[in-house]
Amino acid sequence: MTFEGKYYNGQSSKGMPAHITLLPDGLRIDYSADEVLGSVYWELGGLHRSEFNDATTLLRYGKFPQQSISVVDKGFKEALQQQYHGAAFLKSGYNSVLGLGCAGIAVLALSLLGLLVAFVVWGVPALADRVAMYFPQSYERQLGEQLYTKMLQGYQVNDEKTAALNAYLSELDTDLDYPITAAVVTSDEVNAFAIPGGYVVVYEGILDKMEQHEELAALMGHELAHIQNRHSLRAMTRSLSYYMLASLLFGDISGVAAVLVDNASALRNLEYSRSLELEADREGLELLRRNELNEQGAILLMERLQSGSELEMMAFMSTHPNTGDRIKVLNELIGGGEQPSKKNPELERHWEQLKED
């Protein structure tokens, strides 16, 4: 039994006139291409499920790039069902759905809706988080520079304290994969935040509360841990995941960076999970150890933040986990044994410059 149709070889989108013959265990397809005749044989096991409409039958065969045939003849579908009754490729998913009945279709629709909601609520942010982890470092640095420049436009930078802070950081063994650039901005707000790619913004308000430079080292270790582990980038991409998804869906890859830069102000209000904050606290403590500085600097920093005014605490707690819990964890990490520490005249000199009015 032979039917006329079009054959597609998977290499070209051009259909070739063909005669399709139904054999006991497969299909033989004789085709002509530019006056050259050819023939292929399709085994039944290699045929893929396909939907049929009233007039046209489409069948696919093999692995990528798949071959396919198209036959505009209602009798072809009927002949296939008669010749190969029960074959897998003849089982239509559409017909299977119809066989569920109204109640089954309703349950299926609700299940699909539930999956869609789950993907939107949890899947999209998780996907954005994973995308952030695979940002090339060079691209992250460029993005961070744009975010840093955009952020500082809304602040008055204290040039003297900025120079002193960068000098302080240059004396620290930070073990960071990024070059560090920091700025001190004029503000009474008790805050500091990390920007992807090696950038940090510190408010004068948090510096004014400190009394020992080890507190500053602990703060810098905490913020640099956010950068090293891409916490800032991950939190920001999760926060803006739906804007980014829209950019990706419309094929605007450059739009992803534009979305992040346009929302640079969100950096100062980023909320990190409790686990990420505690990870940054642990690595901040490790920075103190690596530089042989007094580990109590991390505890003192937390205690000063905890002892702030109600307004300061409300602002700080809006983006950070419970400070009391963090102090408890840090005390457990430090333990009873006192780690060796030593004076660092260079760090102390830069610290005094930072504390000058």
In words, what does this structure look like?
The chain is α+β, with helices and mostly antiparallel strands. It has 3 domains: about 1-95, PH-domain like; about 100-130; about 135-355, no CATH class. The chain is built from 15 helices and 10 strands. The chain has helices at about 75-85, 95-100, 100-135, 135-150, 160-170, 205-210, 215-230, 230-240, 240-250, 255-260, 275-290, 295-305, 310-315, 325-335, 345-355; strands at about 1-10, 15-25, 25-35, 35-45, 45-50, 55-60, 65-70, 180-185, 190-195, 200-205. The strands form 2 sheets. Strands 4-3-2-1-7-6-5 form a 7-stranded antiparallel β-sheet, covered by helices on one side. Strands 8-10-9 form a 3-stranded mixed β-sheet. β3 and β4 (about 35-45) form a beta hairpin. α4 (about 135-150) runs parallel beside α10 and α12 packs antiparallel against α14. The longest helix is centred in the N-terminal third of the chain and has 33 residues, at about 100-135. The radius of gyration is 32 Å and the shape is elongated.
Topology of this structure?
Elements: E1 2-8, E2 16-23, E3 26-33, E4 36-43, E5 47-48, E6 56-61, E7 67-72, H1 74-83, H2 93-98, H3 101-133, H4 137-152, H5 159-171, E8 181-185, E9 192-195, E10 199-203, H6 204-209, H7 213-228, H8 231-239, H9 241-249, H10 253-262, H11 274-290, H12 296-306, H13 310-317, H14 323-334, H15 345-355
Helix pairs in contact: 3-8, 3-9, 4-10, 5-15, 7-11, 7-12, 9-10, 11-14, 12-14
